[in-house]
């Protein structure tokens, strides 16, 4: 099926490891894991999604005729939880989750309709310390997966809203400006603004949108150009967040990006994106969405982010091109009365943290070597009786030993 | 932290190539002959890698990050909106997207169109949304070439096609009844390149912008 794919063992294991690293990092920061269903009622999803996002959902009716959908993101279900079953839990709430999300259309970045996301939400905390906590967590998460040379771009939704407010232009023109920016079409934006009678510093700012990024200095530069309270407040907040991120120890990887173009209607404050090296799209996205929880009846400030697990995994798979599937440590074969010994030995090896496979059928030692090669394990242990087993490792002579000694040697040598 | 200091730019084969090479040359970034590029498809210059691809493929190279920048006609972007940034109108390669009918056709202004008009085009998306905006029902026949032929043999009532000088239309006994849109060459950029390697990419963008602005 186009847009869906199988993950074979190498990819699947890299993806699962990355997911575990992400969730473990989130838990270390005090975020509690929740699992929400793959299916949600449309009544719930409609509270948080715009028309365009709703259109992209896989929708169907359940046995009672209620319209339900496969989730296209998981922030809304988490908001539903925070305002519902977790209503009694004290704020701020720190929650994290992982799971697939679906879209009837392949995304802008990937030709995939099923993707995997791992996310964290900090609900009930406003202000720069909370913003910075989530950004720092996102950075630590990318680090935890093993991605190197990542960077985080931090912007502010209010900076743009302030500029748009300040424009004395007809709504039709403002909407066209928003549409051009959402499509990242700066040529159309330029043509629109050329036709307007006003020529202000804020015009200039809009035209330079994609270049409005850098270090602390751009806050000063932009501060000299904006003349409206909303944008000025946004710049002040960004400055504070930037200071706190330096204290978090991730100042190096953070860039300020006033031209960040994201879902304008959803985000209400600081927004950010994480990029890996030489990868043409963001691997993590997030920001403040203070409006969402109120729609579920528990008004609360909230910020969070999502990591695109597929992209992280793809990055790691490529970085590890030479790396093959982690090998099995031991193939345990048996013949005669050796099955019980083989099973016991397998358990012992696994107890030591090794990967071991016990054969499903009896094989003489000679045939077992062929099976060993097919399985691709580092060691072959062949059990013929309860007391005597033979141990072969690549490039070494086969030795006959008591079973306990084999377990000890294997664990000591390769663990 | 960058492992790829060089900025890469994708240029389109075909009608826009001479203008693209002129712009590059005027910007002082690279002086390249069409012949050299056509032979090698990939040319390395200090700080710049130039690759030559089919016009419709430029957005794919840029969206996926295989090229940081691309030069492409707006007409290509109409049909394949992507995740790139459209940064600069490079001002060459101007052409118009027009609705044309055969000289003998009775069709002319809006009031002469039948309730359902049949239109052949290589631009189904743009055509559909234009007719939609004009409240006109349309049946689109998607063709891949020689669109001019379609009305002459009775396949459709009209065509929507790109024209620079109008000569091909005249030669095929077609006349323009409406203009849908206008296109020029655009500079597009990969979203991540602008962020992760912004200094190098922005400096190339600035030079190309200046070269386009200073063009005669």
Structure commentary:
Chain A is elongated and about 95 Å long. In chain A, strands 1-5-6-12-11-10-7-9-8 form a 9-stranded mixed β-sheet, sandwiched between helices. With 415 residues, chain A is an alpha+beta fold. Chain A is built from 16 helices and 17 strands. Chain A folds into 3 domains: 1-149 and 276-326, Bira Bifunctional Protein, Domain 2 (BirA Bifunctional Protein, domain 2, 2-Layer Sandwich); 151-267, BirA Bifunctional Protein, domain 2, CATH 3.30.930; 328-414, Rossmann fold (3-Layer(aba) Sandwich), CATH 3.40.50. The model of chain A has no long low-confidence stretch (mean pLDDT 89). The longest helix of chain A has 20 residues, at 9-28. With 216 residues, chain B is an alpha/beta fold. Chain B has 2 domains: 7-93 and 184-213, 3-Layer(aba) Sandwich (D-Maltodextrin-Binding Protein, domain 2); 95-182, 3-Layer(aba) Sandwich (D-Maltodextrin-Binding Protein, domain 2). Chain B contains 9 helices and 11 strands. Chain B is elongated, with a radius of gyration of 20 Å. The relative contact order of chain B is 0.22. The model of chain B has no long low-confidence stretch (mean pLDDT 90). The A-B interface holds A 108-109, 149, 151, 153, 183-188, 190-191, 210-211, 213-214, 255, 257, 273, 275, 277-282 and B 1-4, 63-66, 74, 81-89, 186, 189-196, 198, 202.
Q: Features of this protein?
A:
heterodimer; A: 415 residues; BirA Bifunctional Protein, domain 2; 3 domains; five-stranded mixed sheet; 16 helices; elongated; B: 216 residues; alpha/beta; D-Maltodextrin-Binding Protein, domain 2; 2 domains; six-stranded mixed sheet; 9 helices; 32% helix
């Amino acid at each position: 099926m186009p847009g869906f794919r199988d993950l074979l063992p190498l990819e699947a294991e890299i993806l699962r490891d990355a997911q575990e690293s992400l969730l473990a990092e989130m838990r270390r920061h005090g975020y509690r894991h929740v699992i929400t269903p793959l299916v949600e009622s449309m009544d719930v999803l409609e509270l948080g999604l715009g028309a365009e996002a709703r259109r992209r959902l896989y929708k169907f009716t359940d046995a009672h005729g209620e319209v339900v959908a496969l989730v296209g993101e998981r922030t809304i279900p988490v908001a539903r939880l925070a305002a519902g079953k977790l209503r009694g839990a004290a704020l701020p709430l720190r929650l994290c989750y992982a799971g697939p999300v679906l879209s009837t259309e392949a995304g802008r970045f990937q030709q995939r309709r099923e993707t995997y996301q791992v996310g964290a939400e900090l609900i009930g905390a406003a202000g720069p310390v909370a913003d910075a906590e989530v950004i720092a967590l996102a950075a630590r998460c990318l680090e935890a997966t093993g991605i190197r040379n990542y960077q985080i771009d931090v912007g502010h939704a209010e900076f743009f809203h302030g500029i748009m407010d300040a424009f004395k232009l007809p709504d039709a023109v403002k909407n066209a400006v928003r549409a051009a920016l959402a499509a990242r079409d700066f040529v159309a934006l330029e043509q629109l603004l050329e036709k307007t009678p006003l020529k202000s510093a804020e015009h200039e700012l809009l035209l330079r949108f994609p270049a409005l990024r850098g270090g602390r200095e751009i806050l000063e530069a932009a501060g000299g150009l904006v003349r409206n309270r909303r944008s000025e407040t946004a710049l002040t907040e960004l400055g504070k967040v930037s200071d706190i991120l330096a204290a978090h120890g991730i100042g190096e990887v953070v860039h300020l990006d006033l031209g960040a173009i994201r879902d304008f209607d959803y985000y209400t404050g600081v927004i950010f994106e994480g990029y890996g090296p030489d990868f043409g799209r963001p691997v993590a996205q997030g920001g403040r969405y203070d409006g969402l929880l109120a729609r579920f009846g528990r008004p609360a400030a909230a910020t969070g982010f999502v990591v695109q697990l597929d992209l992280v995994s793809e990055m790691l798979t490529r970085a590890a091109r030479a790396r093959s599937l982690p090998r099995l440590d031991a193939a345990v074969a048996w013949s005669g009365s050796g099955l019980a010994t083989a099973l016991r030995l397998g358990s012992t090896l696994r107890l030591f943290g090794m990967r071991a496979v016990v054969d499903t059928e009896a094989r003489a030692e000679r045939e077992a070597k062929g099976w060993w090669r097919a399985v691709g394990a580092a060691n072959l242990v062949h059990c013929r009786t309860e007391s005597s087993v033979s141990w072969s490792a690549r490039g070494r002579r086969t030795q006959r030993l008591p079973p306990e000694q084999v377990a000890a040697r294997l664990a000591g040598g390769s663990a | 932290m960058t492992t790829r200091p060089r900025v890469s730019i994708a240029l389109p084969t075909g009608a826009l190539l001479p203008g693209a090479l002129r712009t590059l040359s005027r910007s002082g970034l690279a002086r390249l002959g069409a012949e050299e590029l056509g032979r090698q498809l990939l040319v390395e210059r200090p700080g710049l890698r130039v690759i030559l691809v089919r016009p419709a493929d430029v957005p794919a190279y840029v969206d996926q990050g295989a090229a940081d920048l691309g030069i492409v006609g707006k007409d290509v972007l109409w049909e394949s909106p992507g995740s790139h940034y459209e940064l600069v109108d490079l001002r060459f390669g101007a052409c118009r997207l027009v609705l044309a009918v055969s000289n003998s056709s009775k069709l002319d202004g809006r009031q002469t169109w039948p309730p359902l008009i049949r239109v052949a085009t290589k631009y189904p998306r743009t055509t559909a949304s234009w007719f939609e905006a004009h409240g006109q029902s349309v049946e689109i026949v998607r063709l891949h070439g020689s669109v001019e032929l379609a009305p002459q043999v009775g396949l459709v009532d009209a065509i929507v096609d790109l024209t620079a000088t109008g000569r091909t239309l005249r030669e095929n006994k077609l006349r323009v009844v409406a203009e849908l849109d206008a296109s020029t060459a655009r500079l597009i950029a990969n979203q991540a390149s602008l962020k992760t390697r912004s200094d190098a990419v922005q400096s190339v963008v600035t030079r190309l912008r200046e070269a386009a602005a200073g063009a005669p």
